[in-house]
Amino acid sequence: MAELQRKADDRVRRMLCLAGFAACLAPGLARAAEAGVSDKEIVVGQIIALTGPLAGITPDIVNGAAAWFASANEKGGVHGRKVRLATLDDGYVPANSVKAARQLIEEDQAFAILNMTGTGNVAAVLPMLEKERMPLFGPITGADSLRHPLMPSVFHIRASYGDEAEKIVQHLSTVGIKRISVVYLDNGFGKDGLAGMEKAMQKRSLKIYSSAAVQQDASDVGKAVTALHDTRPEVIVMITTGKATVDFIKKYNAVRKGTQFYALSVMGTQSTLRALGPDGVGVVVTSVVPFPWSANPAAREYRAAMQKAGYENLSFMGFESYLNAKAMTEGLRRAGRDLTRAKFINALEGMKQLNLGGFEVGFSKDSHQGSKFVELTIIGPGEKFTK
């Protein structure tokens, strides 16, 4: 009997020791429960085309977010944590985007991804992000295919390409323009934008007058110029980016002057204006954020933050990135000190109306589309946008 009692006492002692050990570990486990979150920082990933056909526009995106987080971190960050950006280059190649996302998940242990560029690039990483329940905030693509059906962990700020196409076609139909042609990139972005144009035209019982696809590297721009020039359109809508946009406009102007060009918001950078030079004058560009050089409170704040951070280039794309980072920070703040991805997503879905300084965004459980703001701007002399 004594031996049985001794063994029972030993089992009780072992159980108590194990319980005590688990209790000692619990606080540490709670702190390390969510990837990318420590006592001192929150790691946010960026997958962006620092090289390749979009290399000219992405520095503005990187600098816009960096300027916001520098300002926010200087003021104490989010509940005492600084936000650290981990930026990876994918060269605008979807396969590279997948590798970068895997690195952010497995090596960098990022909490979420911000400002990812490219329709096909975002589509390529979504299965991985959904599996990890890793939030993707403010992707810089207006593809409707990435908005419907709603994806639980993806939150968009910018209006869709369909919204931009609607604005362009609404304006052109109002002023009586009917011969509307389209040149588009032969990829997911271009095809999604083309579908948006077709829908906006059909709404008004119109059809696209003529169209031509081009490669991302602009290697076949000459063929597209010839194809559209032969149809004599009144207006050409550009569903293109970077080099393809610049090369097409320059080559088209060389064979036929006076055709009006309309371009989507993704060309709204100073580098594109510099590359176009005099050929850019008169090109109409959609914008999904307010005019960065206006008296809008958020625009003034953006300009001041960029100046303080030492960044010279101001642009629509940079301002968009700045607003994305600002809205994301508010979501992190509302999620509370005990930050998890689930709490961040819940906080965003409860953010019905957020005023970022004259620019409002809002989400809900049924809508992860933050804004539908679109307006038209025009490139004036001196490589400057005007309204």
Would you mind describing this structure in some detail?
The protein has 387 residues and is α/β, with parallel strands linked by helices. It folds into 2 domains: 41-158 and 294-372, 3-Layer(aba) Sandwich (Rossmann fold), CATH 3.40.50.2300; 161-287, Response regulator (Rossmann fold). 45% of the residues lie in helices and 15% in strands. The protein contains 12 helices and 14 strands. The chain has helices at residues 2-31, 58-74, 94-106, 119-132, 161-174, 188-202, 221-229, 242-255, 270-276, 297-309, 316-335, 341-349, and strands at 41-48, 82-89, 112-114, 136-137, 154-155, 180-185, 211-214, 235-239, 260-263, 284-287, 354-355, 360-361, 375-380, 384-386. The strands form 3 sheets. The chain has a 7-stranded mixed sheet with strand order 7-6-8-9-10-13-14, sandwiched between helices. Strands 2-1-3-4-5 form a 5-stranded parallel sheet, sandwiched between helices. It has a two-stranded antiparallel sheet with strand order 11-12. It is globular. It starts with a helix and ends with a strand.
Q: Alpha-carbon distance between the termini?
A: 95 Å
State mean pLDDT (0 to 100 scale).
91
Major sheet, described briefly? 7 strands, mixed
Question: In angstroms, what is the radius of gyration?
Answer: 25 Å
What strand order characterises the main sheet?
Answer: 7-6-8-9-10-13-14
Q: Roughly what fraction of the amino acids lie in strands? A: 15-25%
User: What would CATH call the homologous superfamily of the largest domain?
Assistant: Response regulator
Q: Kindly report the CATH topology of the largest domain.
A: Rossmann fold
In total, the number of domains comes to 2
